[in-house]
Amino acid sequence: MMNFRNLTIPAWTWSFLAAFVVLILTFMVAGGGAKTLTLAFTIAPYLVLVGLGQMLVMSTGAGNIDVSVAKVFSLGGLVSIAVGEATGSWVLGLAAAMAAGFALSCVSLASIIFIRIPPIVATLATSLLASAVSLTLAQGFQGSADPVLKGFLGSAPMGVPAFALVVLLFTIFVQLMLGRTTWGAQTLAFGQARRASEYAGVSATKTLTIVYLTSGVLAALSGALRASFSAPNVELGNDYLLDSIAVVVIGGTLITGGRSEPAGIWGGALFFILLDGLLNLIGWDYAGQNILKGFFVLAVLFLASGVPIIHRRSASANPADLTLPEAADSTASGASFDVQASAERSTVT
Amino acid sequence: MISMNPIRSRNAVPRGLVRRVFPGAITLVAMIVILIVCGTIQPRIWSQTGITLILSPIVAMVIASQAQMVMMSIGDIDLSIGFFVGMVTTIVATILPDTPTLGFLALGASVLGYTLMGALVQLREVPSLIATLGGSFIWLGLGLFALPVPGGSVPDWLSSYAFWTPPLSIPVSVITMLTATVITWFVMQRTGLGARFRSLGSNPYALIRSGGSVLRTRMLTYAIVGILGVLSGITLSAEIGGGDVNAAPGYTLSSIAAVILGGGVFTGGRAVAWGTLFGAVTLGLLTVLLTLLNLSSNLQPAVQGAIVIAVLAGRLVVERVVK
């Protein structure tokens, strides 16, 4: 790592660059003001929390993904408001939501570890379970968020949203955990080479348990907070599934596992939220917003992901193909990794 | 280094016909059991109309699952098929009835869009999961652009096909399903194209050394997925009698579940057209069964999820016993 030749632009730069470009465009259209940023930082933390969980899951290697975050998010919102209303304490409400997320993750984990169901199908089954509970709970649902919590989530002294600072601290915590602790090293090693790390003594069960539980708990917690910020709803989390995966990857985390970029999630989340704001501002309808969002995701992928355009990266940092066992060979045998070489490699006979 | 690993032979991906067919067979058993239970509760489904009624909502899902199966045979995953099918229904319901030429051009262009997505995945080595995710935003946007609110009407030839009563009291939905499956099976298992797809999934170096182009193969795969997606959309709009971009977002994940139930694998290299048919029909029939059981519609998703897990757990148990 200390080798100077291996120094490259951090993978998360691209997402911040994209967010920055959108911010400049917003200022050009709307005439500027810190208000735009304050608003973006008020909404972004919810997506960041879900994204952090998703990132941990995706870091543990190809095929690991949590597609239940959307429904768990909605359920977390409903549970926290319901429990908070019944007990009169928003702390208990948040705790109940986290417990619900924990329980649902246990269902996913049991299917993944004991029945060996691919994670995407296992978490899909969990999300069906979560949506059934949400639908039952939402029948005749009444209740509103605790004003104290709601006040905190909306508060922004001197234009700095307090909640965003808390989530920022949590992001730094996750970054330190991944970078500085044995657990982090083990998790990333597991993502890079599952079998090799298992020989080195990393427990697959333990690694998977921690990341899936974290993802479930964070999704439910984020949903609980989001519901307190606005209002609980069965559909509340629907956008968060695709968005969470997109911001994680735009942020520079490798979908093949083994490299996490917690900072990049902020860039990705701000990019998405500022983009939505900008398009609203210039009067694009929802249809146009989605088309542009899709093109932006593909454009960022084109620039940031895959084969590095400028730098030669170490072989393991190449997200060649999602599931190919041969992918490592392909990167090891290729001599140079610019666009042209990749194109040639594709047509080599 | 890996070849010296003693555990490898035990953990290696199982090969051979039995291994490929077995998971689909288990799903077929589950499908027949569900069908029999449905028939016991409501004997009137044993008629041409009855079978048509319970199967016609599943037809589009079967074709979308075949698309996902083709995608998974090369080791990629398609997260955009649900919105793509939805977008196709909006094209079918708005442009196709009045200006058929323009409509078919639009459908052709969407297949081209899929092909370009394949080129992006290959050239920039982008994960398919994320590229198709980006694509799904575009399909959703285009669909909303074509038809902001559900509606429109389908061309006459399409609705007359949907209401066609074939001879020998064969339900039209069964004909469509079987045709789609047979064609997919034939292409994947009996043509050189299918062999190249599967080789891209299992061992791309074999494909390169045998003179194939990885780029062209991946683009062709995405083109075929796009064509199947268009067929699924046409079938779905015939079924719902109009267009709605949000008609089938659930297809994305259900189709993956159908392929897994049918014996497909995420690592690619395996094409299971028949298994996918059984998987998709099983998932569809579950909804029918739960409705017949008068289960609260709120609880249906939970039971559906539990049964998917149960079938996969049952397969694991049987596999252990067979071993």
Your description of this structure?
The complex is a heterodimer of chains A (349) and B (323). Chain A is mainly alpha-helical and 349 residues long. Chain A has 2 domains: 15-305, ABC transporter involved in vitamin B12 uptake, BtuC (Orthogonal Bundle); 310-349, no CATH class. Chain A is 70% helix and 0% strand. In chain A, α2 packs antiparallel against α10 (204-229), α3 packs parallel to α5 (119-138) and α12 packs antiparallel against α13. Chain A starts with 12 loop residues before the first helix and ends with a helix. The model of chain A is unreliable at 309-349 (pLDDT under 50). With 323 residues, chain B is mainly α. Chain B has one domain (24-33, 56-322). Chain B has helices at 8-11, 17-41, 48-73, 81-98, 100-123, 128-146, 156-162, 172-190, 192-202, 204-209, 214-240, 251-261, 273-292, 300-322. In chain B, α2 runs parallel beside α13 and α4 (81-98) runs parallel beside α6. Chain B starts with 7 loop residues before the first helix and ends with a helix. Mean pLDDT of chain B is 84; it is low at 1-8. The chains are: A mainly alpha (349), B mainly alpha (323). At the A-B interface, α5, α11, α13 and α15 of A face α5, α6, α10, α12 and α14 of B. Chain A: It comes from Mesorhizobium retamae. Chain A: Keywords: Cell inner membrane, Cell membrane, Membrane, Transmembrane, Transmembrane helix, Transport.
